[in-house]
From TrEMBL:
It comes from the Bacteria. Keywords: FAD, Flavoprotein, Oxidoreductase. One of its GO terms (molecular function) is oxidoreductase activity, acting on CH-OH group of donors. Belongs to the GMC oxidoreductase family. It comes from Alkalicoccus saliphilus. This is GMC family oxidoreductase. The keyword Flavoprotein applies.
């Protein structure tokens, strides 16, 4: 029999950015919060002297152990899904802080268009512009409503940046000035301006000055060491949960973190969540943690899986388009181009995770799609994240992949080449979804999560059209040879692309087509909140963390209102006038 623990006001499933924000806000308000984290405890000291590319970047020291838990994958429902046995397309974090510790720090706001994407698309182009297979829908919230929460997250993190000329309006400037303008960034900005675009410095959670955030947490100036993505910052110069929101919550005395605690079920009774069941991963003991509010705050894929194994909410059925849990799984559509220079040299071995510049002229609906065979778009960017020696071997197309020619070209172009990227949106398809695998289970006997996903014609057309700009930019920057990669085939889960998984527990204003309201409160269970990128109804042409943080602050406010007022739905459900087609 599981051991039942003392009741708390709120229990969180996972302890990363979203749980940390919820815990910080609610414990400051006097509520008790327990965070259940299945990984190990980590502090800043654990990341000292870990600038080891082989161990962390290539052998994935900080990532989920796929021998103990993984997902299965297939491109379509006619295929047999197979387990993902090694990290590739995306990197699932583990331990305290989760993926919020090994991130790069690129912290964007989504565009106003994103939150009302269906209604604005129909208003400008007509309903027929949206393909029948595309389950596109508004989010049930506007940019203006979410803007104050963006502002709070940016000030908590000490985001360094400059205003995006084509972005949504801001109530305040970034708390810190932008990162350094290096030679390659200056060349990018000049070329973009020459071509009529609107470049801006990338918003960065790598801090440009020593900074004390509104909660009194001290962060430090980035040293441009180039060990950000796949690494924790040993200097405390990259905003992450361990140096921001978690200390804030712990200092109240109302927050307890219990590590090595793997939640296997959300417990429900009479239409409400009563707590969670979890296993101590060290001893194998089972425990019940009762709570007035359950906040599911783990990574996207884990959020969806836990709801499905707990039989909470209606699973999505791709055949009928009915159900909501697992619906609108989206990823990111990428394009890239390499420019090779004979005479120019760059300090590419130095950098930071969010050192770069971008422009949004081909993002969202910032350009006319009337005669185009796709919607949305993506950001065009250059980043100087720092080329580490093992995994950085840029050579022109046609170069041998090994041997003396490869070595010669690798050495020549290591600091004579630049890479530009398209980070494109991912719009939902009725045939891209998450469910439980009928064959494979984990070590506890629970079914693995199954991902059914492939790129669509929308994705391919968008990548080809927007990606051609990359080559034009590199030519304007003076590259002597340019290779463009903007053709995408079928999605493959092995080569790394991005860790930007979204959807599966999406937000909206209609319970028939969404799982949570705009406070990320479940329609079916008033005291169950599910937040994070799982709430995204689609993915924009940006990194998701800024929007994850904003939604978490909104969710925390909703939970507090729920507790203060003794329960109830925070948002009245309504049927939108333009319902999604299925």
């Amino acid at each position: 029999m599981p051991t039942e623990l003392d009741r708390v006001d709120v229990v969180t499933v996972g302890v990363g950015w979203t749980a940390g924000i919820i815990a910080a806000e609610l414990t400051k308000a006097g509520y008790t919060v327990k965070g259940l984290e299945r990984g190990e405890e980590k502090t800043l000291e654990d990341y000292l002297h870990q600038k080891d590319e082989l161990r962390y970047a290539l052998r994935y020291e900080m990532m989920q152990d796929l021998s103990k838990e993984t997902i299965t994958f297939r491109n379509n429902s006619d295929m047999n899904a197979l387990p993902m046995r090694r990290h590739g397309s995306f990197l699932l974090g583990t331990d305290l802080g989760g993926s919020g510790v090994h991130w790069n720090g690129q912290t964007y706001r989504f565009l106003p268009y994103d939150f009302e994407i269906r209604s604005q698309t129909e208003e400008r182009y007509g309903e027929d512009k949206i393909p029948d297979y595309m389950t596109l829908q508004d989010w049930g919230i506007t940019y203006d409503e979410l803007e104050p929460y963006y502002d709070r997250f940016e000030k908590t993190c000490g985001i360094a940046g400059e205003e995006n000329p084509l972005g949504g309006p801001r109530s305040d400037s970034y708390p810190l000035p932008p990162m350094a303008e290096t030679k390659m960034i200056r060349m990018f900005k000049e070329a973009a301006t020459n071509l009529g675009y609107h470049p801006f410095h990338m918003p960065s959670a790598n801090l440009t000055e020593n900074y004390e955030n509104p909660d009194g947490q001290q962060l430090y100036e980035c040293q441009y060491c180039a060990f950000c993505e796949r690494f924790g910052c040993d200097y405390g110069a990259k905003a992450d949960p361990i140096v921001t929101v978690l200390p804030t919550a712990q200092e109240t005395g109302n927050f307890e973190i219990r590590t090595n605690s793997n939640v296997t079920r959300i417990l429900t009774e009479n239409g409400e969540a009563t707590g969670v069941l979890f296993v101590d991963t060290k001893t194998g003991e089972e425990f019940i943690q009762p709570a007035d509010v359950v906040a599911v705050t783990s990574y996207v894929l884990n959020n969806v899986r836990l709801l499905l194994t707990s039989e909470v909410g209606t699973p999505y059925d791709p055949e009928t388009g009915e159900g909501v849990i697992g619906k609108n799984y989206c990823y990111q559509v990428m394009g890239s181009a390499n420019g090779f220079f004979e005479d120019e040299k760059f300090n590419t071995f130095m950098g930071a995770g969010a050192l770069g510049a971008a422009f949004d002229d081909y993002n969202g609906d910032n350009f006319d799609h009337s005669d185009l065979d796709f919607l949305h778009g993506g950001e065009i960017a250059i980043t100087q994240t720092g080329r580490r020696p093992i995994n950085s071997n840029p050579v022109p197309d046609g170069t041998a992949s090994w041997g003396s020619e490869f070595k010669e070209q690798s050495l020549k172009y290591f600091n004579r080449s630049l890479n530009l990227r398209l980070q494109g949106s991912s719009l939902p398809s009725q045939n891209n979804y998450l469910d439980l695998d009928p064959t494979y289970t984990d070590r506890y006997g629970d079914p693995l999560l199954r991902m059914t996903y492939d790129f669509t014609d929308q994705d391919r057309n968008m990548a080809q059209y927007c990606g051609q700009v990359l080559g034009e930019m590199l030519e304007e920057m003076g590259a002597d040879h340019v290779d463009v990669d903007n053709e995408i085939g079928n999605y493959d889960i092995v080569p790394y692309q991005t860790t930007h998984n979204t959807g599966g527990v999406i937000m909206g204003e209609d319970p028939e087509t969404s799982a949570v309201n705009n406070y990320n409160q479940m329609w079916d269970y008033d005291n169950l909140f599910v937040t994070g990128a799982s709430a995204f109804a689609h993915n924009s042409g940006y990194n998701p963390t800024g929007t994850v943080g904003a939604l978490a602050y909104r969710c925390a406010e909703g939970i507090q209102e729920f507790l203060d007022n003794g329960g109830g739905q925070l948002v009245e459900a309504k049927k939108p006038s333009r319902k999604m087609r299925t």
